[in-house]
Design brief:
Strand content: 15-25%
Oligomer: single chain
CATH superfamily of the largest domain: NAD(P)-binding Rossmann-like Domain
CATH architecture of the largest domain: 3-Layer(aba) Sandwich
Bound molecules: nicotinamide-adenine-dinucleotide
Structural class: alpha/beta
Order of helices and strands: EHEHEHEHHHEHEHEEEEHEH
């Protein structure tokens, strides 16, 4: 019987834990605040940001939202970040990616104060993660780590294959899996678009993390019997639904499920975890900035 890993349930636990710590902060006179910045007309980005704002409200985090015209000069975004860096009521800053082409993404990520960088993309925070001294773990790989822990998936000594090497998922995911300690100690292979024999790598994998962005790219025939399959992919495919599309992962769910020992569905797997870990990082940031002890699980 294949275990279906329930991201909604684990995310609800994380949110409950976060909400408790919001109260601890409130008792110390601190209301945690998260600023989201949107410089894009992309409907998907708009949806993501509004979901993040709604999530904040639910756990008692003050949401602050700034919208910048997608055609505005880059300086407008930089000025906004400078203002938010200086605000005492803002503990976390998230600039929704992608930013327009005329804005240099790296400059944006470097401009956010590392203490407020709840996405964990500032080079200082990337460096700390790699050094095994993470401040803010990027939300998606952190969420995956939480899922693995919640379902007692043994990572120590396991052969893990991460498919994808992006800065926001694949690379930090691999870094977390190779760290010493619980939820680490995995023997980790990173596959990407230039990998020669993906099927050969997957055939031996105890844990597969798929972050490719290609609908149903990995199927059951490529997996080892009993493997744990974490599907990060969220892909829109045309479908005969009200919206005209459906969401599918990077893994072909039905065939993978018949081989895997445990698997995440899409939606309802990694997605809700990503959202929950942003709240987690925001509360952690507020605690650090105000010297309030926050003991998040
Ligand atoms: P990306 O496009 O930045 O990276 C995709 C990676 O896949 C690249 O590193 C590339 O080398 C690799 N790749 C491409 N073709 C390949 C091939 N043929 N074989 C092996 N590897 C190949 O994407 P991303 O930002 O890492 O996102 C990946 C997917 O995860 C997307 O579907 C995205 O929507 C989704 N995503 C979901 C969440 C979530 O919360 N669940 C968060 C972030 C991203």
């Amino acid at each position: 019987e294949t275990t279906i890993i329930d991201g909604n349930a684990v995310a609800a636990d994380v949110r409950a834990d976060v909400a408790e710590h919001v109260e601890t902060l409130e008792d110390a006179g601190v209301t945690p605040g998260l600023a989201t910045v949107l410089m894009s007309d992309d409907p998907a980005s708009e949806t993501y940001v509004s979901m993040k704002q709604r999530d904040c409200e639910e756990v008692g985090i003050e949401g602050i939202h700034v919208e910048i015209d997608a055609d505005a000069p880059a300086a407008e975004l930089y000025d906004t970040i400078d203002d938010l860096n200086a605000r005492e009521d803002v503990h976390g800053i998230l600039v929704q990616l992608p930013v327009p082409d005329h804005v240099d993404k790296r400059s944006v990520l470097r401009r956010i104060a590392p203490e407020k960088d709840v996405d964990g993309f500032h080079p200082e925070n990337v460096g700390r993660l790699v050094a095994g001294d993470a401040r803010f773990k990027p939300c998606t790989p952190h969420g995956v780590q939480k899922l693995l822990a919640a379902y007692d998936v043994e990572t120590e000594g396991a052969d893990a294959v991460v498919v994808g090497r992006s800065d926001i998922v694949g690379k930090p995911m691999a870094n977390l899996l190779i760290q010493k300690g619980p939820t680490g100690n995995a023997t980790t292979t990173v596959c990407h678009s230039r990998t020669e024999d993906l099927a050969g790598k997957l055939a031996d994998a105890d844990i597969v993390i798929a972050a490719v962005g290609i609908p149903e790219f990995i199927d059951g025939s490529m997996l080892k019997e009993g493997a744990t399959v974490i599907d990060v992919g969220i892909n829109r495919v045309e479908a005969d639904t009200e919206k005209g599309y459906a969401l599918v992962g990077d893994v072909e769910y039905e065939s993978a499920k018949s081989v895997a020992g445990a698997i995440t569905p899409v939606p309802g797997g990694v997605g809700p975890m990503t959202r929950a870990m942003l709240l987690y990082n925001t509360v952690k940031a507020a605690g650090l900035q105000h010297d309030v002890a926050i003991d998040l699980e």
